[in-house]
Design the sequence.
């Protein structure tokens, strides 16, 4: 139900287990779990065609880079900090990459 409402507004709620944020004073907060409200790519977007990313690269570059399309910025529209899980509930974290698509990645870093 809530998923359908969110989908209609091209929004999605994602859980990030280790989010970093920089406060206005420049102090880094994190990693802490957050619930973030993300904008989903526009399926009719003329720039990315609904993929949410656009290739950007210059001739002479070996591999094209990918950039977030303006219709789907990477940074969430809003997020709420969640309380840190108690120590006993924390599992050993190995190579948690907060920039991966769903909070973690099984692939080798490079
Ligand atoms: Zn787009």
Sequence:
């Amino acid at each position: 139900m809530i998923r359908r409402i969110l989908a209609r507004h091209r929004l999605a709620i994602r859980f990030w287990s280790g989010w970093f944020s920089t406060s206005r004073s420049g102090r880094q907060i994190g990693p802490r779990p957050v619930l973030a409200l993300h904008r989903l790519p526009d399926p009719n977007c003329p720039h990315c065609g609904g993929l949410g990313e656009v290739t950007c690269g210059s001739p002479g570059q070996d591999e094209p880079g990918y950039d977030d399309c303006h219709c789907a910025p990477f940074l969430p529209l809003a997020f709420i900090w969640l309380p840190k899980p108690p120590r006993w509930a924390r599992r050993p974290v190995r190579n948690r990459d907060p920039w991966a698509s769903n909070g973690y990645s099984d692939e080798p870093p490079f």
About this structure: Residues 41-42, 45, 47-48, 69, 71-72 surround zinc ion (CB under 6 Å).
